């Protein structure tokens, strides 16, 4: 594998962002959710207008992990009013870290996490936080390994299915 680079997503990456978003979400969750719920979620979360709005939002940022020309995974972070909840101006939310199944276990997720941590530190955030599905043991273990601890729960709606996310955070000061 060549060197993995992290680069900020721009509006010219809209199609690539949509493709990687849909592919990684399907790979991660299709086996444990209905096709109907999956399609409702994908249509809402990853339509062109929504992604375009998110890319152009000054309080969100997307980053690709790339290996030469290939996109291996991506990160979405939010701060200020773009956070999905808690709306703490002194925090940064990791809304998504997704890596293609074929590239998992190759430090791609770790590099994306380090990017989120770097942005949070540059913003002098008090903490980094996220929500992770309570049944996604692999992701929970990844975040625990990186020092995040559970502090609350919230409901994440996938289609018509209400699922519980564990909210985790990492204090930065």
From TrEMBL:
Keywords, comma-separated and alphabetical: Acyltransferase, Ribonucleoprotein, Ribosomal protein, Transferase
GO MF terms, alphabetically ordered: acyltransferase activity, transferring groups other than amino-acyl groups
Pfam families for this protein: Acetyltransf_1
Keyword Ribosomal protein found: yes
GO cellular component terms, A-Z: ribosome
Domain N-acetyltransferase residues, every copy: 4-173
The protein's name in its UniProt record: Ribosomal protein S18 acetylase RimI
